[in-house]
Amino acid sequence: MKKLLVFLSVLFIVLSCSNKSNENHEERPVIKGLHFFDFDEVVYYKTTMKQTDLDTVFNAPKSIRRQLLLDVLTSYTPESLKDSVFVAQLEDIGYNKKVLPDSINESLNKIFSERAYDEDYAAPACMPYFRDVYVFRKNNKITGVAKICYGCGFSYFTGTDAVTQNFGRHNELKHLEKIVK
Description:
Distance between the termini: 37 Å
Radius of gyration: 16 Å
Strand content: 15-25%
Strand order of the largest sheet: 2-1-3-4-5
Oligomer: single chain
Number of strands: 5
Number of domains: 1
Shape: globular
Structural class: alpha+beta
């Protein structure tokens, strides 16, 4: 139990220091409206795990399934699109799959696009649990992955050169959550 608390404390400190989504692109100017992903299909994965379920996972015996679930829920995976093999296993680890209708693709493009904001913004300071995963595809090939913690607004992206640091501000997450239901 003590090891778990130490692990969670270290993880919390590391994660709360910065939103790791595409830090290497934060130096360039924002191109307002530049889409994060080129896609013709979005598959949405969601788990309804409660905090008590997460505690059970953390305390469960080590296994490949447990490690994959922890990686998806709490870490910056995939690091690149080459690592996106986990997508095929999301349903096996408790995520529900939903292919989003093409009719909302324009709205998704607006939400998943670069924005410039004048005011300062403090990055979320929580331990994110990525219960929501969006997989973007073009011609049946994965072009991007977005992992979102709606609880604290933290997000992680793979497969984009866009500046994503302003994602989720000004009720964008509420709008996203509303259109995918």
